[in-house]
């Protein structure tokens, strides 16, 4: 056992602001084209049921095989907003990187391009496409968010905008 633990060494102090997963970066450190990937996730019927409970979206194409096929789907379809939620920046390292300068998530737009069903594995990423200083100590970062399935097919494409502090914030 290490006898040099912080509690036994008064010269070493713990500062929670220094206990970061990755070094904090400023707005000015972000680069166009930089990509932040999320771990892949395989959706199950249990995920869809949980989302159905939270969203109160009870359309039978999301849980009934017969109704799904009647509407042209091979199996029940995962809720579109549930798929979109997989682009949430919190699942990637992005909020760890911008945590000290983050002000707000201000905007998003989304296109659903491919049906998602239970047992599909989703791979999502955020790419910085437009970091723009707004003056007054604030900046907007626009990201492209994409989700590919296990076959490499693009299932969702959207954009997010975040308001950040710049180095010139007071």
TrEMBL record:
Entry-linked InterPro entries: HotDog_dom_sf, MaoC-like_dom, MCH/BMMD
Superkingdom assignment: Bacteria
Lineage, uppermost ranks: Bacteria, Pseudomonadati, Bacteroidota, Sphingobacteriia, Sphingobacteriales
Ranges of residues in domain MaoC-like: 38-132
The protein's name: Acyl dehydratase
Alphabetical list of PANTHER family matching this protein: BETA-METHYLMALYL-COA DEHYDRATASE, MONOAMINE OXIDASE-RELATED
A Pfam family reported for this protein in Swiss-Prot or TrEMBL: MaoC_dehydratas
